[in-house]
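[step 3/7] fold_predict: job queued, chain A
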Amino acid sequence: MAVREIAAWVMVALFGVVGAFCLASILNVGLAAPPQKFAILAAVVTVMGVVVLEVVLAIFFPRQAGAPPDERERLVVARAGHWAGLAFLFGVLPALGHYVVHGNGNIMFHVIVLSVFASGVVEYGAQIILFRR
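[step 4/7] structure written:
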């Protein structure tokens, strides 16, 4: 398995697990509740997880981790990024529309945070699928 595919698998797991806990925390108190501390903690955990992943990959695969992506990898990352952008937009636009109509920024905040995690799962999941083709 290529290093970028290994990274994609770990990122899908990271975004999926942290996003699921964030979703459970938000749904536990309701979307209209003030922004949850767990949502901010989830973002910090995700960033720390990405940094740890990059360091571990650089230690175990020093040549491949530092190598620039080839033509195929660039296309895979670009296509997956496009799909992730669409997934993020699919969550953000309704959140913004809801804010314009109802003026509830708490719901907008929670939906956008969840959209970030969903788009991360879409991006890295799409990379796995496209790398496997």
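[step 5/7] annotate
The chain has one domain: 3-132.
The chain is about 85% helix and 0% strand.
exit 0
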